Amino acid sequence: MNWKPAILILVMGLICCAVVPSHVAAQEQNLAPTPPMGWNSWNHFAEKINARTVRAQADAMVASGMKDAGFLYINIDDTWEGKRDDKGFVHPNWKFRDMKALTEYVHSKGLKIGLYSSPGPKTCAGFEGSLGHEEQDAQTYADWGFDYLKYDWCQDTGTPEQMKAAYTKMHEALKKTGRPIVLSLCQYGWGNVWEWGASVGGNLWRTTGDIEDNYDSMARIGFGQAGLEKYAGPGHWNDPDMLEVGNGGMNEDEYRTHLSLWSILAAPLIAGNDLSTMTPYTQEMLTNREVIAVDQDPAGKQGFPVVQEGPFEVWEKPMADGSVVVGLFNRSKEAGKMTAYFSHLGISGEVIVRDLWLKKDLGSFQEKYSVNVPAHGVVLVRLKAK
Ligand code: GLA
């Protein structure tokens, strides 16, 4: 027997059978190994978003260094939707004439792009929802070249069973397209979504109502995440809503608290400001790699409070390298001295402390680290046993 052709046939057979159909490959893909990072139009632009502005945000994400710092998605929120044609296909409205050209532009920058819809008949802003058109819409988004879908309940009521069914339907429809598309569930935390969001295909799920650009709203939502840490992990994340950093309603200490807390929470970091006009301070904040590294740590552990005493809260996030990130948060309107006791954090002996906002080693400490924390502010440190 001539063994050469036999081996060739065997190898070809193996190759043929090892080739997985693309839709199966896509299903297997872990779409969000670390919390998604990007930008979304809603918090700053709301209904005043259009294709030109989206392109400008993509340009700014690259020019500002945010892309290099890890921001990836440019997400269009509500109000892009036009009418359906007589075959049921949804079309963008006059603000977004050519979706394919837009996704190609964003992709050409090395970024990815996201879109928004609702499982109901209408979106929250009253535009066309996907009800009854799930497969058709998923295919349309895939054909246009989208990589991420925020799917927003936008109905006054709904049982967890109805929600699970609706989200599963869209998850299946997205899978069927064969295109990897991140699925972001938005139903404001109803029915303890953190308990079932991953099982219906969600890569992230909103845990609360909408954030507002003020300290009280941000703090209520952020500190309110305590207890949800066991539901987050690689591929599936609690989402306490998008960032307000740079939108003007909070001072610098408060925005530092916002970003520090979201990073300790391993929350999706979806900027919500106008990236094309941000101040150098906002830009520096959003590109602080040491803070982003806390959020993006590969262990994917959501942090939790270790001490809550009046307005003082000490939060901890265990990191993959064995170090511990600690946020000393002062929720009062007065500056105050705070102390992190290493015994509360499970560390002993000599500990090296690095301040992540100052990007500076503060030295070695025993037992505890004390610091003055500004009103509504934070000191964010990374501790490593020596
Ligand atoms: C809801 C969502 C927001 C935004 C708007 C758009 O309120 O929670 O994040 O998507 O709808 O209409």
Task: Describe the protein.
The protein is α/β, with parallel strands linked by helices and 386 residues long. It has 2 domains: 22-295, Aldolase class I (TIM Barrel), CATH 3.20.20.70; 304-385, Immunoglobulin-like. Helix content is 32%, strand content 24%. The protein contains 13 helices and 18 strands. The strands form 4 sheets. It has an 8-stranded parallel beta sheet. Strands 11-12-13-18-15-16 form a 6-stranded antiparallel beta sheet, with helices on one face. Helix 7 (134-144) crosses helix 8. It is globular. The structure holds alpha-D-galactopyranose (GLA). Alpha-D-galactopyranose (GLA) binds next to loops. Alpha-D-galactopyranose (GLA) is lined by residues 42, 77-78, 123-125, 152, 186, 210.
Structural topology:
Elements: H1 3-18, H2 22-28, E1 37-40, H3 42-45, H4 51-63, H5 66-69, E2 73-75, E3 81-84, E4 90-92, H6 99-108, E5 112-117, H7 134-144, E6 148-152, H8 160-177, E7 182-186, H9 193-196, E8 204-206, H10 215-223, E9 237-239, H11 252-264, E10 269-271, H12 280-286, H13 289-295, E11 304-309, E12 312-318, E13 324-330, E14 336-341, E15 350-355, E16 360-366, E17 368-373, E18 378-385
Parallel strand pairs: 1-2, 1-10, 2-5, 5-6, 6-7, 7-8, 8-9
Antiparallel strand pairs: 3-4, 11-12, 12-13, 13-18, 14-17, 15-16, 15-18
The protein binds alpha-D-galactopyranose (GLA).
